[in-house]
Design brief:
The protein is an alpha/beta fold. The protein has twelve helices and eight strands. The N and C termini lie close together (7 Å). The structure holds phosphoenolpyruvate.
């Protein structure tokens, strides 16, 4: 399959894996995926494992992501981690506005936008997550929700920064549920997202932005999802925690 945009597959480990478990998994991934050049690969371990995983993937084709960061650069923000701290471990990507953070930490679009601005200022690539709830989809509000989240979460970014941003479309009803969006649902949401990106940053930029799909991606559905014209990769939760299932997703996406 050929596409102008290079696919990007990311594993979001969430609040899982001790340092030892993280090292076991990443050692296996390095071995199994050593020859993968066709797509960008990254893992986002918990903060506590970043240091060791960072050392373990030196000289490999696996890049490092964080699952969140502060919108501030330093100071009295107990419990927070800022961009420069992530950069100490060669983190390249940071997941922002995941639906779990929107839901449980009440993160709103304006906060996510400030985090995305801080990420770009530090040359980290944000993976900005958006997605509708089941009630919103059933009420016919999917596009309205996606547009509000996207415009709000990318506010203040320049077209150049938008080009370096990855958008993850993750329908909340598909996250961790085993229910994957149908390929036509995913494609039409991604095409809509690209249309909004064009209105924010111009057609040429919108064509270059990578839009990942997330929500119960598995080896069995990866190929079909990745073959959609506007699907440029996957953000994987549950299936990223096991060597075999993540490896299968990557291999089936090539
Ligand atoms: C996620 O949390 O971003 C996710 C896509 O999870 P899962 O793959 O488990 O649905």
């Amino acid at each position: 399959m050929t596409k102008d945009r290079k696919l990007i597959i990311a594993g979001n480990w969430k609040m899982n894996k001790t340092v030892g478990e993280a090292l076991d998994l990443v050692t296996g991934l390095k071995r199994e995926l050593a020859n993968v050049k066709e797509l960008d690969l990254l893992v986002a371990p918990p903060f506590t494992a970043l240091s060791e995983v960072s050392k373990a993937i030196l000289d490999s084709n696996i890049r490092l992501g964080a699952q969140n960061m502060s919108e501030h650069n330093f100071g009295a923000h107990t419990g927070e981690i800022c961009a420069s701290m992530l950069k100490e471990f060669s983190v390249r990507y940071v997941i922002l506005g995941h639906s779990e953070r929107r839901q449980y930490q009440k993160e709103a679009n304006d906060l996510i936008a400030r985090k995305a601005q801080a990420a770009h200022a530090a040359s980290l690539k944000p993976i900005v997550c958006i997605g509708e709830l089941l009630e919103e989809r059933n009420a016919g509000h999917t596009e309205r929700v996606l547009e509000t989240q996207l415009r709000g979460s990318l506010a203040g970014l320049t077209p150049e920064q938008i080009e370096e941003t990855i958008v993850a479309y993750e329908p909340v009803w598909a996250i961790g549920t085993g229910v994957t969006a149908k390929t036509d649902q995913a494609q039409s949401a991604h095409a809509f997202v690209r249309q909004i990106l064009a209105s924010l940053a111009g057609e040429a930029v919108a064509k270059r932005v990578r839009i990942q799909y997330g929500g119960s991606v598995k080896g069995g559905n990866a190929r079909e999802l990745m073959s959609q014209p506007d699907v440029d990769g996957a953000l994987v939760g549950g299936a990223a925690l096991e060597l075999r299932s993540f490896t299968e997703i990557v291999k089936n996406s090539i």
